[in-house]
Every structure is written in C-alpha cells, then in structure tokens.
Amino acid sequence: MISSANGLKCCEVAMGILKEGGDTLDAVIAGVNLNEEDPGDNSVGYGGLPNERGEVELDASVMHGPTRRAGSVAGLKNIRYPSRVAKVVMEQTDHIMLAGQGALDFAKAWGFPEENLLTEKSRMAWMAWMQSRRDGNGSNAWAPGIDAPGYEPQALLRRQFPRATEEAIAWALDVVKNPPTGTINCLSLNAKGEMSGVTTTSGLAWKIPGRIGDSPIIGAGLYVDQDVGAAGSTGRGEENIRVAGAHTIVENLRRGMSPKEAGLDCLKRIARNFNGDERKLNLFDINFYVMRKDGAYAGVALWSGRARRGGYWAAPQFAVNDGGASRLEACTWLLERKRQGN
Ligand code: GLY
User: Is 184 inside a domain boundary?
Assistant: First the structure.
C-alpha cells in the first residue's frame, strides 16, 4: 500500500482490509474515506477548502485492476465521500465520469446524503481570501470600507471568528497567500498480485467554480494497468493533465523503467513544458506515487522541499505500508529548491 504523505492512517486501514482478504479497491476507498471525513485535512472531502464562491467542489477517481474498470466524479458538491460515488459510477453505470449537477443527482439517487462540507475553519480561510482581494483602486466590497478605522487582516478575523485559535487564524492567512492543491492518492497490491487505486481531492483552493483538476481524470490523477502497475498524483493538477502523468508513468513501467525512473521521466516532461524555467516551475509542487506489479514502488517530487508556515522546511515524503505499521519514506526529487527555514 502506498499513498501521499497524508495517508499514514489510510494505508494502515487499507492494509487491514487486504489482510482480511478484502478487495484491493474496497481497501483503498476505505483508507481514503478517513481523509474525506477528516475536517483537519483541508485538501480532501469534508473541510476541504472551497472554490471562489465558498462552495466545496470535490473530484475523485477509482480504478480496479482485476476487472480493468474505472469510475470518476468531478465538481461534486455536498457529498462527503466522492470516492464511494466514483465506485458506484464504475459499477452501476455504463459511463466512466459524471460531473457537476449530474454527479450530485446521481449520488442522491444512490442514497448518498447531502450535507454542507464547508467547516467553520475553511469558511474563515475563504473569508480571509475574499477580504484579501483588491480592485485597481485598492478596494474590495467584502473588506472594511473607507469609513473603517483601519484594516488589519488578523484582527479582523479575530473579531469575525471569535472561537478560532491563533493557530487557525495564522493558517487561514497562509492558505490565502499559498492556495494549496492537496489531495490523497492511494495504490494497493495484494498477495495475489491484484492492484487498485483511488485519488480524491477538494482541488485547488479558491478555484473558479467548475474547475476540474487532474484527480478525476483517468490517466492523469490515477492510472492502473493490472499487467504493469499503477500511478497517481498530488499537487498542481493543471501540469499533470498536460502530461497525462499517471498513464505516462505506467507506460514507462511497461517499457522497462523502474518506478523511480518512470516517475522522474514524467517530472522531466513537466519541466520541459516550461523549457526548464525554474522561476516558473518554482511556483508549484507536484508529486507522483508509483507501484509496479511486482511490488517495487517510488514516490517522486518535482522539488526537494518547500518552506511551510513558520519557516519550517518540509522535504517531500510518501506513506508506505507493507504489512506492519505505516511509515513515511522520502520522495526522490527532480529539482533542488533553494532551502529556506530550518
Ligand atoms: N491535484 C489536485 C488538483 O489539482 O486538483
């Protein structure tokens, strides 16, 4: 079992299901459901950061290796577990991908409850983002007007969200400046050699309503070929879509590359799309998770690390579970980022 770094618990739960003889796709879906329902994971499901209108829009895809089937949903609102809906699309329809209102109607028809996915913490971050925007004259109708004594974003949030902690306020102001594209991807392989995968996300924070990322696109955010291996991605979906990353990586495996070589080659294609211009490449992060049918695996990242809030330096990692406790392993990176912080 491998996943993005936010999947330590996910991999553990999924491995437990495999050990009991469960299906590889059921395992990864049960694993990522933990992230989808966790209000603390602001990149997935309930508590995910919203689009520019303050609506949480979710994307997810699933692929089942043994039956070679796939399903996905895009721009799905108000449903906590988009990965489960993607599986129903796969199993109960003659289609692969449902989007927007159609996906919501479908989910409701299958009994998924509708609920507001915007937590108070995510609403605070969205409000901070709304208040941070300025027109050419430096004004914003959502921020205090010209009659206001002053504008200090931190103090304003403290007044508007009196129950928010200082840490939550600092986080909100940070995600305003650095809109995250978190996600979870999880890939599984059982003792019989069967593979499956899932990718689920709330996508890019503050996106234009209707923006679809790479996660629900079979061949970009996820690809599984039972004969060869599987790959998935987190990070800036736009760049992944342009190289059909997960499919590219699986085809690289098919041609004999190792998981690490296959992933790095894909990252090189992304860098090539910018003629290797590191000033532009420095504006985003993207990771791939790769698992070959024989169990060899790798996590690869475009950059060697990034400065997080508070100046602390985070090197890219991914989660692995091969039967015991889950652990984080280092991703192999393509480009070295100038190190800031500790
Ligand atoms: N990779 C997640 C997204 O860009 O939506």
Answer: yes
